[in-house]
Amino acid sequence: MSNLVTITSKFYDRSGRRVINLNVMSRYQGSKRENLQKTDLHGQFVFQASPQRTVEILAKPPNQKDFTVFKVIHTSIGSSSQDPIKIQLPKTIEEYKQKELGETKARIVTTTFKVVDCAGKVVSNFPIQSRPRGRKNAYERYTNENGIVEVLSSPQRDIEILVLTSNDQFVVKCEVNSKNGSQQPILIQLDEPYSNFKSRSELKLKDRTGEQLIETPTDIEMLMLDTGKKQIITILNGSTPLFSMVGQRLQFRVLKPNGDALSPVTYSAKRMRADAVELRLDVEVVKGITAEGRPSIEKSIKYNLEEIVSLSFFKAVYGSNKLFSHRVMKGRSTHNTPPEKFVIELNKSLIKHNLKDKLMLCHFLAQIYHECDHFNTLIEYASGKDYDISNFPPSVCDIKKSRACRRRKQILAEGNTSLGDGPKYKGRGLIQLTWKSAYKKYKSYSGIDVVNNPELLCDDLFHAVDSSVWAFNVFKNADSLIHKGYKDLNGTYSDNYHLKVVESVSRRINGGNNGMAERKKLFIKILKEVEKRDGFK
User: Fold this and answer.
1) Which residues form the Glycoside hydrolase family 19 catalytic domain (predicted)?
2) What is the pLDDT of residues 361-409, one digit of tens each?
3) In degrees rounded to 5, what are phi and psi of residue 345?
């Protein structure tokens, strides 16, 4: 048994999503002995085999009668949870789950379109409607950053594609038959330039009860997510006109009288005359003005923000020094962040993600401290060249088992395919989010374009914190290990028991044993402080 090798594979459907709870099996080629399993929460199928053997990896997607061979490998191939053997199904899980209709199975096909304006300019996040020909009801969807939109339908279906005009009406622009679907985009060209699509709306500021504020001049920070540019808008009487391009992604944050900002609201106009953007201030009294420079305050503001981790607890564990003070942080808005400001953003994200249980939070707080070098930085110190494809040409795989060849494969798998992607997508945030694929996933989750503006993860304190909670719970899925390790997340266990869980969580977050001793030490320190205070207050 000691000579067996471990093979880690990962299943994806046609859309690129991981496939969990999929019936899978492995067997030696030519053998009838089979190893039946199901993919885990990460879509992974892990099994052992003898060295120097050829192995078939099979799967049985939903509504399929038999197992199908999807991959044939030699056991000498290298694989790990971080670099699994990727296996892609030819259909999406939704397509597999279509029920049989009569003698044939109902199928869904995808027809792809690309939308440009009259000058050939790609229009992103632009509203498109589709419907079966002759029908009145249409389904609305939006183009991606490349102007691409996918329309699902039955095979051989006549489809009408409607586009928005600057008159705020949808008109039929294209009629096609879906046939068996198309991956090559069908071009749809608008009759007018994108510059015609300037939307008018209104920005309203309301208090917690929903009443419009009319007395207090208030500054609103508007961030243009596609470019990273910021603008300050002052609302004088509770509302102000808002002009933006259809599909343009904006983020608004109310600036408090002390200069800080509340949680952001993301907005994108979908029509020429769009609904108003409503921002709510969770306050009792507002009497102040945020002017450029030093703000003035006439009356205090009472904020009803739930506190999970108190400032007192934070300082007891981590100290009172300012955070993110390393020289690589100079010039950034997050440089020398005071603990008072950091704890506010931390609590916002903990509340947002419902990360409150004692042991879950202890593990999270221990991990982020080490990952960002003791709260010294929000950006990786290394240049990022080790993640750049330019440093790993195809020739490095002349020696297939070399570290350079493995790195090249990883770079390509993680989406760093363009020159400069290594430095662009190196580690940022409290939990150093790395690789273009990870930035894309956070963009998809948050709606914030960190793919085109990766610096937001180290320049914007909220996103530096929020991305780390997301990475811990969703991207790295470390919370599943903690749930698995403890029957009661608020229970009592021995230190040795805790440290075994710390080991598994640390490997999931970091991919290895880097800083393991410190992570363990800090976890115990945090836990003892929690037990002393009977909580995080």
Assistant:
1) 419-475
2) 999 999 999 999 999 999 999 999 999 999 999 999 988 889 999 999 9
3) -70, -35
pLDDT mean across residues, the chain: 85
Domain boundaries, the chain: 5-92, 108-194, 198-297, 311-382+426-533
The secondary structure of residue 21, as a DSSP letter, is S
Task: Name which CATH class applies to 5-92.
Answer: mainly beta
Range with the lowest mean pLDDT among 19-28, 230-239, 376-385, 501-510?
230-239
Quick one: tokens of 266?
Answer: 């993301």
Please give the radius of gyration of the chain, using alpha carbons only, rounded to the nearest integer.
26
Handedness of CA 89, 94, 95, 100 (dihedral sign): positive
* Arithmetic mean of pLDDT, 521-528: 95
Beta bridge mates, 297: 288
pLDDT at residue number 108: 74
The amino acid present at 14, given as its one-letter code, is R
| Helices (runs of H) and strands (runs of E) counted in the chain | 12, 25
Coil, helix or strand for 465? helix
Amino acid at 225: L
User: Residue 442: pLDDT above 60?
Assistant: yes
Top CATH class of 108-194 equals mainly beta
Average pLDDT over every residue of 439-462: 89
The amino acid sitting at 248 is Q
The structure tokens listed for 142 are 């939006």
Q: How far is CA 419 from CA 118, 127, 364, 389, in A?
A: 31, 32, 34, 6
- 311-382+426-533 is classed in which CATH architecture? Orthogonal Bundle (1.10)
Alpha-carbon distance of 329 to 335, in angstroms, equals 5
3 state SS of 154 = coil
Phi and psi at 4, nearest 5°, equal -70, 150
Taking the domain 198-297, which CATH number applies?
A: 2.60.40.1120
Beta strands across the sheet bearing 85-88: 44-49, 5-12, 85-88
Share of the chain above pLDDT 90, in %: 51
Do the domains 311-382+426-533 and 198-297 match in fold? Answer: no
pTM equals 0.48
Place of tokens 């950053």: 145
Provide CB contacts within 8 A for 241, sequence distance 6+.
200, 201, 202, 203
Token reading at 1:
């048994």
How far is Cα 405 from Cα 135, in angstroms, rounded to an integer?
A: 54
Amino acid in the structure at residue 470: W
- Which amino acid does the sequence have at 301? I
pLDDT of residue 437: 95
